[in-house]
Design goal:
The complex is a heterodimer.
Chain A lengths: L1 H35 L9 H10 L11 H20 L15 H21 L3 H32 L4 H10 L7 H17 L18 H4 L5 H26 L10 H28 L8 H21 L2
Helix pairs in contact in A: 1-3, 1-9, 1-10, 2-9, 3-4, 3-9, 4-5, 5-6, 5-7, 5-11, 7-9, 7-11, 9-10
Chain B lengths: L1 H24 L3 H26 L2 H27 L13 H23 L10 H17 L3 H23 L4 H29 L13
Helix pairs in contact in B: 1-2, 1-5, 1-6, 2-3, 2-6, 3-7, 4-5, 5-6, 6-7
Classes of the chains: A mainly alpha, B mainly alpha.
Amino acid sequence: MTGWVYAGSATLIQVVTVGLGGPLLVGLMAKVKARAEGRVGAPVVQPLRDLRKLATKERLHARHASPVLALAPVVIVASTTVAVAISPLVSTRPLLGSSADILAVVYLLLTGSAAAALGGLDVGTAFGGMGASRAMTIGALAEPALLVAVIALSLPSHSSNLPRIMASTLAHPDWVLGPSRLLALAALVIVVIAETGRIPVDNPSTHLELTMVHEAMTLEYAGSELALVTWGESMRVGLLFSLVANLFVPWGISTHATVLSVVVAVASLAAKTMLVALGVALIEVRSAKLRLFRLPELLAGGFVLSVLAVVTGLVTR
Amino acid sequence: MTSTYVATLELAAGAVLLSAVMTLWRRSVSSIVAMLRLQGVALCAVAVDLALHENDRALLVTGALVLVVKGVVVPTVLRRVAKWDPRSRESRPLVNVPASLVFAAGLIVLSYVVGTRITSLSPDDATRLAPLGLATVLVGYFMLVTRRRAVSKIVGLIVVDNGIALVTFLLTSGVPLIVELGSSLDVMLVVVVLQFLMASVRHHSRIDALTELRELRD
């Protein structure tokens, strides 16, 4: 019985942590960028305030909008929430943890991306279609790299189940500095930057029609639906950052049903994801956005890194 | 102790192959040369690690030689070549960068498939890593045939040589010192001669993309 209570409360804590922490991470990255550029910047909680403001505003639909436009934000948030609930972020034993296969999590996230693209296409504006087509192109290029990196991660633990990968990493701390892990980490960082739309791939703070990718898809949303889309996007950032942090440095995650371990797990997750966010923000400050036609180069680099990770993993086994 | 030896060896051998792939990935000549320097240092780490594990003093000297030649002298010479044209980039390789990276991935998998058949004959901690050296050789050859600029071609040649050196270190714990001395000096000589050649080609015809060279003037 206590097992169920533990698993259920861990799942709940995960959803709350990522639901609140995702927007805070986005705010933190904006703050770090602003400071590095010599500006004061908005407070870290600004994304949460924006969400609250948007949530009370009126929904507006274009005249030719189909039900897809209204459905897409719900699908984005729902699929991301399910992925957050089953992944081992705070505890290695969340509810339905046995079904937290890494491929299942990847495809839950992909469901969200597909919904966002459909929402962007729905009204039939030029920007929406352009953004959706670009986002799908980037997604298609990032996916092979992601899948091969996942194979590299699941090789040593003989399982693609996320909680099992983390448990076996906890048992074998020497795996973390192995060449295979480091290469897979590099590949995953490239993929995460592409999937969250950060700077070398997409600039989240621009509305310049020539360059915007994700922003172009959300142009047709307003009010509470815009809040849902934005919230889903920042939960995605939170989930991907926590997965990267936990897959490579799982220490601190709760494995036993005690209150203390859960508190420690939430604190360490916050610290680890803040470090990842700091790193991504510094990459954003240091680099310029790549031309769209140069992106295949970056993502092919990610792919070859993940192939290297698999081969070194097989060779050094 | 043994696990540190294995971990360092794996890391260093992985770094040799990684830097070979990075030379295909990056475009600016200066960062390609920086990757070559990293490769030389990693190769030296492989040699020193093996030497410490097997108490082989000659191999230690070889490692020092590798560091001097491939980690310091060759990259410095190439850096000077790159400095003649600070904005020099590998702008139009015969195979574009994404395609060559995918091709490199194929070569790496190929060398794993072929290499493990050889290494399974006598598997131990060092020989298991030999496919990484084989992959480095293949990636170097690929760079040699698909890049247009003279500097990139020299880098490809040195990557091939580093790959061969990695395979020899891993399979035989290093060739006799005199052979390594010969081959290292050979590479250094080739680089220096090519540098002079490039200098004179540039001086006379003002181009260094070799495919644009129509005739040799004296």
